[in-house]
Amino acid sequence: MSPIREFLIDVNSSSSSSSGSTNSSSSSSSSSSSAENSSDSDDEHNLNILFPILQILLDGRKRHRIENYIEVVHSWTDAEFKEHLRLQYVIAVTLVDELANSGVLPEQTFGRPKISAEWSFYITLWFLVNTEPYCTLSDRFDVSISSIFRVIRRVMAWILTKLDNIIKWPEGPAIIQASQGFENKREIRNCIGAIDCTHIIIQQPKENAADYCNRKKCFSIILQAVVTSNMSFTNIYCGEPRSLHDARVLRRSSLHQESQNNKE
């Protein structure tokens, strides 16, 4: 029997005894016995109702965190790693080393053990790929929700500093390589990029919400991207509301302005 149930039984037993003593002093022996039996029945009924409620209130929602999930990640094959985190393992290792040497993550020497650069990077990747809520990430990676928030914010800020070095328009010999790639794969000549737009889901804006509501009845902004034949990004433009046509998004982007100023 659980401590909660024992406590409730003791409380109800004391209440029944007190009620029985009071009734015996003011009524006959038979009436007292009948009243006591009725009281016991009511107490048992109340006990059956209160016990599940108190059990829920005292226990709350139990968190089932996964311990040593890093070992699960290390057990993945290269194909499984890319399937789960959308990134090749070799590239992830390189980025983890850069993150560890970037100085973005705090070097604490007290309190709980710090979250490693590898763990921080995998947490952020999982969030970007699966868009899970912080509480779910906390259970999966055995890290507090507040730490999950700080880790994602720091790693994302670090990733943004690398955009200009990674996403850049082909110049010089890179233009010939990009063109040759499309010609070899699809027999398309004089092409250095494939362009298209996609939608990024957002929360309903407080202002001009109708402009951001797409045909699927959710709110989004438009991301315009240009990629090479090997799927490497060379240009991105993001932030326009979904109500704009792709052609208009292109005309508003810096890519279109640059193409008009430098047609060669």
From TrEMBL:
Similarity comment: Belongs to the HARBI1 family.
Domain DDE Tnp4: 195-259
Pfam families assigned to the protein according to its UniProt record, in alphabetical order: DDE_Tnp_4 (PF13359)
Chain residue ranges for the region called Disordered: 1-43
UniProt cross-references to InterPro entries, sorted A to Z: HARBI1-like, HARBI1_dom
Swiss-Prot/TrEMBL keywords: Hydrolase, Metal-binding, Nuclease, Nucleus
Cofactor: a divalent metal cation
GO cellular component: nucleus
Protein name: DDE Tnp4 domain-containing protein
Keyword Nucleus: yes
Molecular-function GO term, any one: metal ion binding
Main localization of the protein described in the UniProt heading: nucleus
Biased composition (Low complexity): 12-38
Localisation: Nucleus
Cross-referenced PANTHER family: GH03217P-RELATED, PTHR22930
